[in-house]
Amino acid sequence: MSAREQSNNLQNAIWEGSVPLDIRLSPSECTIYDQADPYLIQFPRVSYLPFVLRQLHAFFTPFLIEPASAPHEGWFSYEDVPLKWHYPVGLLYDLFSGAPPAQANGPDQDEHSPTQQRRPTLPWRVTIHFTEWPGDQLVQPDSEGKVLHDAFINSVKEADFLRNGTAKGIMSLSKDDSTQLWTAVQQHDRSAFDSVNQKLLYAQGTPMRHIPLKIYLPSSPSASEPSSGHLRVVQSLITPYLPGTKEPQTLGSALHALLPALFPSRRTPILAKPILHGAVVPMNAHVEELLREAAYLDGWLHLGLMMMG
Questions:
Q1: Predicted pLDDT of residue 128
Q2: Which of 205, 207, 208, 228 is nearest to 216 (CA)?
Q3: Mean pLDDT confidence for 212-221
Q4: What are phi and psi of 78, to 5 degrees?
Q5: Across all residues in the chain, what is the average pLDDT?
Q6: What gap in Å lies between CA 220 and CA 226, rounded to an integer?
Q7: What residues have CB less than 8 Å from 294, skipping those under 6 apart?
Q8: What's the number of CA atoms in the CB half-sphere (13 Å) around residue 22?
Q9: Which residues, in sequence order, are CB contacts of 296 under 8 Å at separation 6+?
Q10: Which residues of 113-129 are buried (b: 16+ CB within 10 A; e: fewer)?
Q11: H-type helices in the chain, by residue range?
Q12: Distance (Å, whole) CA 157 – CA 168
């Protein structure tokens, strides 16, 4: 199989990846408590939960104590933790569900592994609320979807700036291209998305400067974020090549530089494993190749960690 075929197969797998969701109306907002039927959906991993709010509101309206609530007032939680609506569904699932990631060498056999202690069943059950917005933890979207659009585009701009040292790529897109990009995200249309995204990812005459990479770490609650799911986001300037050399930067070398206590080895995961799109990522993967082949739709590598032992 050629490198191009392998690349296309990987990107197909990422785009076709999905999470089966079992969405339940919050009992405190339901006229029959917890007896309303669930809303079941196979949801794309790279997509965003607010895209299904209108369908959910229509589905649950007969059971709402406050039926006058609006669709955009809906928010999601998992085990009482509000889910950040601007995170892709696949990332949320990897961070919160406790599901074991896919691995090239089969399931982790460590009997002390947390993934062995807890193997949740699918579909992933989350709760939808239409009242009592958690304003201390989530920014509330508007009825026209502008807040969601702006959050996505700002993330794309930040990724573009990191890659090229300028956001000229995204800023110079035509109005039609900009509209097509956002519509493709909403409609989960890979062909339409790729035709615009390739212009950003492969800017002519511009070598890649830095890798847009965010790492999500479990952490203790703080005064500023008392119950936010206890996540800490780590990011720094990661270059495609090791500083001062022409040797490609690997994920292992990047993680060792950013989090040496968690990744004392550049080659072997000892205390934690990196997770991307529900799978363990090899430590020897080149970060630039990983970005071009497996970035989320906003242009970022959103990396979760699975603790070992």
A1: 98
A2: 228
A3: 84
A4: -135, 120
A5: 91
A6: 9
A7: 10, 11, 14, 276, 277, 301
A8: 9
A9: 46, 88, 91, 302
A10: bebeeeeeeebbebbbb
A11: 3-16, 53-60, 89-96, 114-117, 146-164, 168-171, 175-187, 190-201, 251-258, 287-294
A12: 9
- Residue 207 token pair: 């070598």
What letter would DSSP give residue 126? E
Among 19, 15, 99, residue whose Cα is nearest residue 280: 99
Entry pTM: 0.91
Three-class SS of residue 216?
strand
Band (112; pLDDT cuts 50, 70, 90): very low
Which residue, chain included where needed, has tokens 């509000």? Answer: 82
Phi, psi values for residue 137, rounded to 5°: -125, -25
Which pair of tokens denotes residue 285?
């993967």
pLDDT band at 221 (very low <50, low <70, confident <90, very high): low
DSSP for 253-293, please give it.
HHHHHH-TTT---SSS-SSEEEEETTEEPPTT-BHHHHHHH
Question: For residue 226, is pLDDT > 70?
Answer: no
pLDDT band, residue 222 (cuts 50/70/90): low
My answer on whether omega of the bond before 67 falls inside 30° of 0, hence cis, is no
Q: Which long-range contacts (CB under 8 A, 24 or more apart) does 161-168 make?
A: 162/209, 162/210, 162/211, 162/212, 162/237, 163/201, 163/203, 163/208, 163/209, 163/210, 163/211, 163/212, 163/291, 163/299, 164/203, 164/206, 164/208, 164/209, 165/206, 165/209
**Run of H or E residues at 29:** none
**Over residues 279-300, mean pLDDT:** 97
Tell me which residue has tokens 């703080």: 222
State the Cα–Cα distance between residues 78 and 23, nearest whole angstrom: 10
- pLDDT for position 116: 41
**Strands 272-276 and 231-234, how do they pair?**
unpaired
Per-residue pLDDT, averaged over 164-180, amounts to 94
28-45 burial, b at 16+ Cβ within 10 Å, e below that, comes to: ebbeeeeebebbebebbb
